[in-house]
């Protein structure tokens, strides 16, 4: 076994992410991460005192992937870049993604991401007192949509269920041709556009 150097925290989090991606969050433990990195479990405790701290670090690791290199110039481009990055992250790490809804992050990357959203909303003309609420509205939609996709609620398989349900209900009968989206990418884009109009009506 080898000793960890002070710069090895990213390696620990990468190992934790790989284990969770491969085997699910229930397989993630200090021992499993130590084995993946090639050290004793005790060597990890200088970095993370327990599994909760490891999970918090993992959330920060995920949020680091969401900070765009080039967020764009307009407030719409900046909010859109964050939204599409969140959806992409869910697809790349479907077993780990739910952590973003379960744990609050105060890591530098997490704070930077929220600050980018705050600034975009300020630039959109949202009153200062309303910015945090509107950011929560938007992030809740994006996280919920992405989670619905990776959990199967929004999927091609769910289209058949949506098509069959409520066939004897009047509103379902009237909307029968519109209940099963053909393109979830297009629906996500349309939903974002609707949110942008709510944020600042044209």
TrEMBL record:
Keywords: DNA-binding, Transcription, Transcription regulation. Residues 29-48 bind DNA. It comes from the Bacteria. Residues 6-66 form the HTH tetR-type domain. Gene3D superfamilies: Homeodomain-like, Tetracycline Repressor, domain 2. InterPro entries: Homeodomain-like_sf (IPR009057), HTH-type_TetR-like_transc_reg (IPR050109), HTH_TetR (IPR001647), Repressor_TetR_C (IPR004111), Tet_transcr_reg_TetR-rel_C_sf (IPR036271). This is TetR/AcrR family transcriptional regulator. It comes from Nonomuraea helvata.
């Amino acid at each position: 076994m080898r000793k960890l150097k002070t710069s090895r925290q990213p390696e620990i989090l990468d190992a934790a992410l790989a284990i969770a991606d491969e085997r699910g969050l229930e397989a993630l433990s200090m021992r499993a991460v130590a084995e993946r990195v090639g050290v004793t479990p005790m060597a990890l405790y200088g970095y993370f005192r327990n599994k909760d701290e490891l999970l918090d670090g993992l959330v920060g690791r995920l949020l680091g992937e969401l900070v765009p290199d080039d967020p764009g110039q307009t407030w719409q481009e900046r909010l859109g870049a964050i939204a599409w990055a969140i959806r992409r992250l869910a697809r790349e790490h479907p077993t780990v993604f739910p952590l973003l809804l379960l744990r609050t992050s105060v890591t530098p990357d997490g704070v930077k991401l929220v600050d980018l959203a705050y600034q975009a909303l300020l630039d959109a003309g949202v009153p200062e007192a309303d910015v945090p609420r509107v950011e929560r509205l938007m992030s809740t939609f994006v996280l919920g949509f992405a989670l619905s996709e990776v959990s199967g609620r929004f999927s091609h398989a769910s289209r058949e269920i949506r098509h069959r349900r409520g066939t004897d209900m009047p509103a379902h009968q009237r909307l029968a041709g519109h209940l099963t989206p053909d393109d979830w990418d297009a629906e996500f884009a349309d939903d974002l556009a609707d949110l942008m109009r709510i944020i600042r009506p044209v």
